[in-house]
DNA sequence: CATTTCTCTTGATCCATATCAACTGCATTT
DNA sequence: AAATGCAGTTGATATGGATCAAGAGAAATG
C-alpha cells in the first residue's frame, strides 16, 4: 500500500527515502477506497484531499450550463489528483472527481501537507518536481488546444498518454480532447487505417 | 529597479522581506534591457533565463510547420516569463520569447535560482505561490480551450486579463486565443455592440 | 438470461470558424 | 509628402467538426 508511494517518491526524486523520513509521510496519509462512480470531490464543495492513486482510475470534470461534462484530467496508478485551487484557498470547487474504476487512494489534507513539506525534504523535492512537470504538461496541452486539429489531438494523446487510450472509454477520451464522441470515433478510424 | 521586485514579493507573500534576505535576491538578478522585437529566447536554444518584467511587454510563441506563430503566453509589468521546461532540463526550447515593447527585465539563471531558494525563505514562498497560481490559471485555460466558443473565449480574456486587451495588438490576442484575426475582429464587434 | 441501458459506429445535414480577397486607415520609411 | 507596409475591417465562400438520427454490440441490472 504505502510501499507503492514510497517507490514512487524514490523514483521521481532519483533517491532513496530514509526510513525515519518515510514515517512522517506514512502518518500524513490515509487509505481511501472508492467504488466505481463514487466521488472524491463534488462541485460546489471545498476540496479536502490531495490523493495519490495506488490502483484504479479517476477523472476530474466540470459540468456546463447545458449539463454537459467536460473532463479536464485523468488519473491512474502513480498519479496525483486534487483540485489544488480549491484545496489551497479552501474555496468551493467547480470540479467533480469520481472513480471510473474501483480505486484505492492514499489521501492527505491541506494541513498535513503543509506540515509534511517541513518534515520531509524528500517529499518537498517530490512536490516541487511534480509542480514543474505539471506546469510543463499544462503548457503543452494549452498549445494543443489552440493549435491542433482533431486528428492531431488524438495522435498527441497516443504519443503522450497511451495508457489512457487503453483505460478510459472513448466518450471520455473525446471529452478530454474537446471532441464529440462521433468525431472521436471517425478520427480513430482514420488514424488506425494507417 | 529592484524595488519593483521587492514590492512584488512583499505583495504576493503578504509579508515584508528582511533587508538581509533581499541582499541575496539582488545579487541573484541582473538587469536586462530589450528593444521591441529583440529576443529573450530563440527556439532550438536552451532557455537561460527566468525573467521578471519591470516594465514593458513580451510574448512567448511557437512556430508551426507552416510557419504560423502561436502565442502561448504574454507577460507585462510584474509578470514572470521563461520556458521552465527548457530552463530546468537544460534542453532546447520549442518557444521564442521576444519583446512586444521596449522592456526592462530582471533576469536570473537556473543555478542562481537554486541557490536563492535555499538562501531566502521569502523567495521560496513566492516561487511556491507562483507555481500554484500558474497551475490554477493553466487548468482554466485548458478548460477554456476545450469548452468555449470564440465569443466566450474573448469574454473570458476580458474578465481574466483586461490589461492584455489594452496592451497587445488584436492579431496577437487572436493568436493567444487560437482564433484568426478576422474572427477576432468580428467577435470583438459583437461583444462591444452590447 | 432476458431486458434495459450504455457505448460505439455510420450516415446526413448544419453551423461556427477558417480561408480568401479586397479595402481602409495608420504608421514607418524614404 | 509620397511610398511602402502592416493592422484591422468587412464580405463571400469553404470546411472541419458538431449535431441529429438510427442501428448494432456490449455491459450492467433485475
Unreliable residue runs of chain A: none
* Radius of gyration computed on alpha carbons of chain A: 18 Å
Q: Give the biggest sheet of chain A.
A: 4 strands, antiparallel
Terminal CA distance of chain A: 42 Å
H-E string of chain A: HHEEEEEEHEEHHHHHH
Mean pLDDT of chain A: 95
Name the beta content range of chain A: 15-25%
How is the largest sheet of chain A built, in terms of strand order? 1-8-3-6
What overall form of chain A do the CA principal axes indicate? globular
Q: Which pair of protein chains has the largest interface, and what are the residue counts?
A: A-B, 25 and 23 residues
Helix count of chain A, per DSSP? Answer: 9
Task: Specify the structural class of chain A.
Answer: alpha+beta
Annotate the secondary structure layout.
2 copies of one chain form a homodimer.
Chain A: H1 2-13, H2 19-28, E1 30-34, E2 39-41, E3 50-55, E4 57-63, E5 69-76, E6 80-81, H3 84-89, E7 96-99, E8 103-108, H4 110-119, H5 121-147, H6 150-160, H7 162-167, H8 170-177, H9 181-193
Antiparallel strand pairs in A: 1-8, 2-7, 3-6, 3-8, 4-5, 4-7
Helix pairs in contact in A: 1-5, 2-4, 4-5, 6-9, 8-9
The structure holds a DNA duplex (30 and 30 nucleotides).
Amino acid at each position: 500500500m504505502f510501499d507503492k508511494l514510497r517507490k514512487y517518491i524514490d523514483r521521481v526524486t532519483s533517491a532513496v527515502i530514509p526510513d525515519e523520513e518515510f514515517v512522517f509521510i506514512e502518518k500524513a496519509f490515509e487509505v481511501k477506497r472508492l467504488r466505481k462512480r463514487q466521488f472524491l470531490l463534488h462541485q460546489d464543495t471545498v476540496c479536502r484531499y490531495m490523493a495519490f492513486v495506488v490502483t484504479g482510475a479517476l477523472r476530474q470534470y466540470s459540468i456546463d450550463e447545458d449539463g454537459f461534462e467536460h473532463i479536464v484530467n485523468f488519473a491512474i496508478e502513480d498519479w496525483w489528483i486534487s483540485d489544488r485551487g480549491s484545496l489551497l484557498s479552501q474555496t468551493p470547487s467547480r470540479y467533480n472527481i469520481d472513480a471510473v474504476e474501483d480505486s484505492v487512494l492514499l489521501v492527505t489534507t491541506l494541513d498535513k501537507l503543509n506540515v509534511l513539506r517541513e518534515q520531509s525534504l524528500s517529499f518537498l523535492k517530490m512536490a516541487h518536481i511534480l509542480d514543474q512537470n505539471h506546469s510543463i504538461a499544462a503548457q503543452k496541452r494549452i498549445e494543443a488546444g489552440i493549435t491542433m486539429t482533431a486528428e492531431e489531438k488524438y495522435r498527441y494523446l497516443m504519443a503522450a498518454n497511451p495508457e489512457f487510450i487503453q483505460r478510459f472509454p472513448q466518450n471520455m477520451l473525446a471529452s478530454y480532447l474537446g471532441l464529440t464522441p462521433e468525431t472521436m470515433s471517425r478520427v480513430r478510424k482514420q488514424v488506425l487505417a494507417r
